[in-house]
Amino acid sequence: MNVLFATPECAPYVKTGGLGDVSGALPAALAARGHDVRVLLPAYRGMKVSGELGDGIDLPASGPWPAAQLLPVKADNGVTLLLLACPALYQRAGGPYLDSSGRDYADNALRFGFLSRVAALLGTAGSPIEGWQADIVHANDWPCALAPLYLAHARKQDTHRPVAASVLTIHNIAFQGVFELAQADRLDIPGPWRGIEGVEFWGQLSMLKGGLQFAQAITTVSPTYAQEIQTPAFGAGLDGVLRSRADRLTGILNGIDTAVWNPASDPLLPHRYTADDLSGKARNKATLQAQCGLSPDPNAMVFGLVSRLTPQKGIDLVLQALPALLQSGSQLALLGSGDAQLQQRLLEAAAHAPRAASVTLGFNETLAHLIEAGSDCFLMPSRFEPCGLNQMYSQAYGTPPVVGGTGGLVDSVVDATLDPVGGSGFVMRSADGEGFAEALARARAAWTRPAEWRRIQGNGMRRDFGWTASAGRYEQVYAEAVERARPRSYPTA
Ligand code: ADP
Ligand code: GLC
User: Fold this and answer.
1) Is the CB of 165 under 6 A from ligand 2?
2) How much distance in Å is there from the Cα of 163 to the middle of ligand 2?
3) Is the pLDDT of residue 149 over 60?
């Protein structure tokens, strides 16, 4: 199949979270199965991309849309990147979504509406790439979510020529791309689809809702989250829409890129190691303690955490648990960035215990790998977690995680108390301070029993978290989507 994978971020070029990791790995896993996969991504400022650069393709201005260029780059992993170059929209100081002071860019509707629109063009007859049209447009999260709507419109306009089927993946339903309904003109949304059957969401325009209405298939990044988002508690207002589309919603657990996240070959680690010889892990722990200014004590249990600092991630629970954790002689190595208030509270907490708690603010890939490798136990008490990747990285690195009992965390961590033979981590029994303290206590007790701990470590390290199985599931979903696109199945205007 010709697959166009549209995404606002893609590791290693630009990443703010797990979507970047998934976009860096899943297309390659699909390409390895014989598909022609091209990744559409904005050309942001300062992005370094290596590979063979093809001729730029001009996209002329049309209707409300600006002129732009597509720059094809053949990457080493078998995937072609299509960089969407439109300097007025994407060449800016700041990140993909936020300016340097942390505010949403005022024109995000246009910036990502345009990304969606170009994705749709590549799936429509007369695609700007000569001789190549997508069979599948795989749109990721709200920034690409209007692509299914534009494709549905193209299908309606021209019933004689093929139009790509669309698959929309929800990586986090908390982010929906909600703007004023008045943006509908600027985004070229057909009149009849501006209402409740289309993008309208409580008087506003929701890009994610628009995509959910028109996609031939909807996926999310774990089976448990697929169930959760159909309930009011987790659906962020879209649970009703999702229940009405339940027949086309599938949960597929993310994999991890084992070329990047493997303790036996990780180039970012000072010491590499395997499940059979963990001596390198002990040396990484010493390096981590030194680098973070923690007491160089091999007998102190080090808890690691790498995260966006947002309420989603249960960072308040970590703050709450910290005094008791330090009291028990354990240490904390935390890396994160995000919410200003959480950052401040973490810094203050660490200042009280400089040799036992270390808080590093910012985005630091190298330190993230060292924390995964050098900690004894990883913390991820998320209140909700669509999939989560760090709990898989930490299991692969022999760093059993303590995780919230939600979403992809329950789908990827086997609780060592419930399954003493096969367990690879500790799942919280309630999503509150008590549940976290109880799971921490179980982890600490297990750590004091070396044989038991080594079994838990080994169980995690020997699990296969690679992408192969999940890439196969996406392939099935693509085939179903193509099938559904055949008889036309979108609301009539
Ligand atoms: P989410 O996408 O919700 O942030 P995931 O667990 O799926 O959560 O993915 C987070 C990814 O971002 C992981 O690769 C993690 O290591 C990385 N990450 C998060 N915060 C930082 C940071 N401050 N520095 C480096 N990497 C980070
Ligand atoms: C989102 C989710 C995270 C998931 C990632 C990749 O950022 O918060 O749980 O792992 O997307 O799918």
Assistant:
1) no
2) 29
3) yes
